[in-house]
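Per-record layout

source: Penicillium fimorum
name: Ribosomal protein L27
length: 392
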Amino acid sequence: MAITILPPVVEDARPYEVDSDDSMSMDSEDDVEMTGISRPHKRPRLQGNSNIGTGIVTPGEVVTDDPQWMRGHGTYMNPLSTSIIATVAGTVQKTNKLLSVHPLRARYTPEIGDLVVGRIVEVQSRRWKVDVAAPLLAQLPLSAINLPGGILRRRTSADELQIRTFFSEGDLVVAEVQSVHQDGSASLHTRSLKYGKLRNGVFLAVTGTGGSGASSSSVKGGVGAATSASGSALAAPGGSGTGGVVRSRRQVWTVSTSNGGGEVNIVLGVNGYIYISKHNDGGDAASSTTENVSITRMEEMVSSSIYSSQNDDIPPPTRREIARLAQCIRVLVQSGVRVDEDTVMGAYNASLQVDLEIGDDEDEEDEWRQEGREYLEGAKAQQILELVKQQL
């Protein structure tokens, strides 16, 4: 029987889809001649028509099942598949081949050196537990505060028995992050004249810390004589944007307000807590009586009343200007504008300018019209935002 040899069957040759970087590496290492060969097709990248979710994703939603992508923060990968699944509600961010989900609303992450405003929630042995809007409560050790009179000594058992005379539950405090533990909790200190208990003002809780995330605001507390700075929360209508308190050159400053309001202190906590209060003239009076005292002992004259919980008498013009500054911050946050010294002062000056323009059109003798000038919503808020954005 004759044997017939059949020629081999050649399959259709298709170029292997590789990245341009891989092809260049093959050419440089193996000296492969590239002439006469069509350029290989690139892998499909993340575009609007890709299978990767764009916009807002929810927890459990599959972002992509393409194995070329690596998972980042806010995602996890099923070990039995190549799907990248979102763990938080947020927007998808791409960094080269890395996919991450930025949450719409995240809690504050403490960092060393941050100036924060917190509320005492628990008194323990030799320490206080402070709410700083972080996932874990921060701790303020007894050894990390100034004793009354500026005395420098070791803390004794007598100080532990009198720990509630310094700070008690519900007190507001401004402090600095001294260290961050391995579990993410922060340790605070108030060993400075610019830190300590807060009073004579109004407290605002602003979301969108660090200049990212959704933005809303709420105002708590009130300004009054012989009253505490705690009260019911007045929730403000929230808005979306990228507003929030950002780390800036100066977080604490004094404003010389108009309309006879005097000087007002503003404390912008990096954690999103803000405190606006009347400027305390006690430090100036103490400094005038201690001109001949050394700088190391000047703290003794000032820190004798820093742990007082009694509010001072605040005149009505100062209260109105404190309320105006609080409204300006709320307008910035609701519109997604960052909150720092420049934007706050720009919004305050813009509100004065808008009131001046409105006052020219109104009868100066009409007192009931003058009472509502501190209301900064609606058309007035839009005018203030336009003036602020022109300055940015």
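summary: Residues 18-29, 42-49, 210-241, 283-291 have pLDDT under 50 and may be disordered. The two ends are 94 Å apart (CA to CA).
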